[in-house]
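Re: folding output
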Amino acid sequence: MAGEQSQDKTEQPTGKKLADARQKGNVAQSREIPSVLILSGGVGVLFFAGSWMFGRLTDMMRVIYQRAGTLSMASETMHTLFWEVFLNCLVVLIPLMLVVMTAGVVGNVAQFGFLITGEKLTPNLAKLNPISGLKKLVSLRSLVELAKSIIKLVIISGIAYIVIHRYLDQIPGLMQLSVGNILRFIGQLSFQLCLYTCMVLFLMAVLDFAYTKWQHQQDLKMTKQEVKDEYKQREGDPSIKARIRAVQREMARRRMMEAVPEATVVITNPTHLAVALKYEEGMHAPTVVAKGAGFVAQKIRSIAIENDIPVVENKPLARTIFKSTQIGDFIPADLYRAIAEILAYVYRLKGLVNA
């Protein structure tokens, strides 16, 4: 059943799906990128400030040994000594700690941006289910993580072997060197080992991030039904929206019909189209108060006849006004002459009726 469900998820995640996942802290995150940045930052600090750090610690130890014969075991004296040692170690470690913390933050922000969420901190009893834990142990993701760990171990071991093998013939001669030269040799060897390791791990981190992002997209894929449900939730049920539009059209049609008795003239096609115009003294131009085709045109015509509104048949004019105007629009200027003739006819007609 689980296999069938995963096969049904063929649609790419929508923007809302990605946003909801991000809000819950579910983002594409590779642990390798912060790790390699932290390691690189630490190596950089040791390379540029290693001599200063070593010298500071050496001076501190020298002072302690010089004062060893005169130190009192009183609590105040020991408290002062430990406080000085603590402050010196803190000063030495502050650059390293700042670089490591910055590298860790940058490594995560570079992947998914700045994100603060407490969703991951919320207790989840489902995570304590032993059956789910066993499933995770034998899942594809756990096997991939195991393979990555083995590959990293093999690569780092290979780099260590290659680097140490280059200096293997120099190791016996270390016995004839001073302690400072021995430490310098070890430091150079360790720096090369860390440098080559960082270069290889950086390449692996880029590949791991690409895989993690692809896996994240796969995990968030949706079924066609989920996409439809989300669209309905966001845009509303299409059937309901269609019903609302139908009601709105009916209300607009009703308001239009209520405006027909106020029209000055109705121009028809004669039965297929009908356009009701209103013109009063002081208006810029005649206004379209109603128009329609088919049944609506017949309804406009019948209302006009019931309310003694003149109905004038003019097929070209009715067709032109119907296509070029909307309800509430003024008549186009190029139709003023034709409309003026019809209005003159209507006024003469009304004058004969009143007489």
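--- second protein (sequence, then structure) ---
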Amino acid sequence: MNKRKVVEEIFFQEGYSLPVVFKSGKLHSLEARRHSGWGMRIFKGGREGFSSTTSGDMDDLRRRASANLPFGPKADYSLPQKDERYRRVSNYHAPTTRTSEQELIDLGKKILSKFSRSRRKDVAVDVDLRTGYRKTRITNSLGLDKTHRKSYFRLLIMATRAKEGDLLRLWGFNISPKMDEASALKTVDHMLKQLSLCERNIKPPTRRIPVLFSPRVLNELLHPIAAGLSGENWVQGVSPLRGRIGEQVTHESFSLHDNPLMLHEVASSPFDDEGLPTARRPFIENGMLISPTLTLATASQLKLPPTASAKRSYKGRPSGGSFLLEVSPGSRSFKEMLSEIDEGIYVEDVSGGGQANTIAGEFGLGVRVGFIIKNGRLGPRVKDCMIVGNIYECLKGDFEMSSERENPWGIIYGPYIRFDSLTISGKGR
């Protein structure tokens, strides 16, 4: 970027959401919300000034961004221009954005009715349904002007069963660009099945045994790898992956891509939050490290090509991230993998990262919903236990991934994963 020339970028976000919330089976709140905001970056003299506003006063925003120039970070890179080529991404469904309050209320009642008909009087159910859209527009003084709109329907269900000495909390989640009643009710069916499986509890074996993880767990399980791929962590020198491009960092059967162009996904986008065209990009391919997640700034600092991985809101500067992570599948089904386990644990959901050195790859996952596996079949629920390990070591050892893949949270599309030997520790032990 020419250090004498002043270059200006405006990042605009606008959104609308209609939430309908039921608490303990009763309508609790509904209130449509609109929001919008502008973030401006000004580049001059090799530095970047930034400021944001919700008022829409561009002159004031420009003055404040300019005033921050002397204190801003170095900016030795060029912004995208108007002649960039972009792929079309369709994740906007206009009828979903016009969904009425009554339609959401009616769907919420159908969901609650399914729980009621199951005669689970010991279960309290909260339901949060919402529809909306988000519009992003990026313009700069080099001629770029790109806009993308996405719609969404989001369902969150929390079912809580409290017994003496046992609190069970199940979560159901569904998100897509289009309101889909059938998929929402299918989520309820899955939760009712889980409730039935959770009738009996046993203490888990506290030793090294096989563990089979649901795709619901991948976000937490692979979080250390996402941290290791962060361009910001590479710049700070804290990532164990820095300097290892071209090296084998996992077994060759494991690949990890970002796929912002996947059809019918809320997370998809034709450009990143700096305006670069997106593409399906490998971060780890056949076990080999290809690239970290880079913004224009971190790519410049590391002297690597940018990966169109910038994520931000109008309130802040871009940072590296992913749109929709895609984990490679295996060749066998979940049922085939399950049938081979004589004794182990199946983990449906976890309660977080625990006390672990995440950046080094360590994880400590509390089992929120898990089941003992005996002779290839699911048995009673296991509780009060934690699974610990190092994801880099796990992905170099004995593991297998299923042929089927799911995207339960809307941000990571991946398989069931079985590790042949992980440490199980009991609560308080």
